[in-house]
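Q: May I have one protein plus its fold?
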Amino acid sequence: MNKKQKRNLCRIIITAILLAALHFSDEGVSIAAACISYASGTFFFRVYPVLHFVLFMIPYLIIGHDVLRKALKGIKNRQPMDESLLMSIATMGAVVLALYQDVTGGHGDYDEAIAVMLFYQTGEWFQSVAVGKSRRNISELMDIRPDYANVEIDGKLEQVDPDEVEIGTEIVVNPGEKIPIDGIIISGTGSLDTAALTGESLPRQIQTGDEVISGCINLTSPLRIRTTKEFGESTVSKILDLVENASSRKSRSEDFITKFARIYTPAVVCSAIALAVFPPLVRLLLHMDPMWGSFIYRALSFLVISCPCALVVSIPLTFFAGIGGASHAGILVKGSNYLETLSETDTVVFDKTGTLTAGNFEVDAIHQSPLKERELIEIAALAEAASSHPISLSLKRAYGEEPDRSRVSDIEEIAGHGIKAVVDGKNVAVGNTKLMNSVGAAYKECPDDIGTVIHVSIDGVYAGHIVISDIVKPHSAEAIKSLKACGIKQTVMLTGDASKIADKVASELGIDEVHSELLPADKVERVDALIENRSGKGKLAFVGDGINDAPVLSRADIGIAMGAMGSDAAIEAADVVLMDDDPLKIAEAIRIAKKCLRIVKENIGFAIGVKLLCLILSAFGLADMWLAVFADVGVMILCVLNAVRALITKK
């Protein structure tokens, strides 16, 4: 608890003790008033009301002075219609009624006025603790803001403000420290804790030459990093800005509650005035006892019951907790409006490369080769030794060793064809069918060419071919099943790849519909068609890598960026950012959103239902101030506790 929460808790405890003491010593107050009357020569009924009023006003002002001040401030600022005004009118009205009863010879009951304010403040305390818990969870989960960067100056490491570090500066990150700025490792190997970014506990292995992003924690040996961005443009800054501004984008439910409260509060005040005035006037016209005190009491109870704080507090808190819970799972939602849209999603459209597949080409098969597989891979890797093309890199990875450049000479890269080189004194050609034709090699077609086919010839004699394909991510098939399980009706894949490759991936994963050989503009057209032809109110989500798919991410009802660690384009274009490339997180994000909206609906239904019932009972004189306290404060506490459940996420 912070200082303010501790102070408010002390006020609540002191008020409760004073109220209990005064309640049980009411007879003592009467005796004291009688003694004062006798000693001063005044009448008892003149002293007792004053003493009774003063004693009970002490706990009332202790617990309620800030509410009264807020109400006066609202009136002064011409924005009076809030729960502070309702509580002030209700409790001060109860105080006036009690004083009137004392003055007229009865026995006024101040307990109810103090109890209403006491329980209201108790509810406010619970709400502040719940909000504080949500904020602490988010700040702990997203505690990735670095305090300093280690820069070597005159042979010594000095801690400087990350904002002062320029692009290209060499920084040192020791074990246990956060990486302050995005960069490239120029020396050092080890592992990084990425849990604050991705929600995953498995460390990420890194080595010299790897790109690293800010916010990760170095677990092992010291790393020397050359920065590639300024601190303000680094991943950590963008993520923190995204999370901090998420609450500014309100959902339809929050907008409704805000507008509802503006109309509801004045309507309630007018209804309470009508309840206090019109029934007694009607009874007067009918020559009956007007019962002013009874109807004023009913009106005051009506005001307490009608306070909209349960809705005004719990609905934004639910969305805030939902965003915090999603952050814990490595899912950044840019606003509660996107959380609401995500919960209504029934169609998910995927990009293929980098989303459902790894985006890294790997050797898939070797066909039609008289050589051993290892020999063919070795020859191809040596020929491609000088190339940085993704296909060349995949061949070198399959070889598993650094190619010996001394065995290779006369390398000639032919655009659109492949590479010619002399390997161990033999003329080697590695490329497509056009290259094979140019060297006179009688190549053989691949019987199952689902992938990129690399043909190899040695001294003009065909040596076989290697099939290279983009590998499907391990969790992609499970992700599609999870989406179907959480209510997604249709899954679609859009890709620029050839139809054979696209159809194979779609069949393997169980995707409902696939469109291949598309340009970026074609993808936008397909998404437009899906949106126009959809039935019902379901929303469409597009999942892409956030770089090539920015136009589609913007066009969809909600854009989800996959594999967004370090991707500026993803963070800018998408509405939801998954901090790793696991497609299972899509279904998890939808489940979190649906849970959040379910809690919102539960709170709205429960709060309005209980209040309507109690308002009817109050209007007919069947509800006293204690029931009014439950209908206001009790309902608010229950709704707040229910809202905090949105912070808890289960895989």
In short: The longest strand covers residues 461-472. The mean pLDDT is 80.
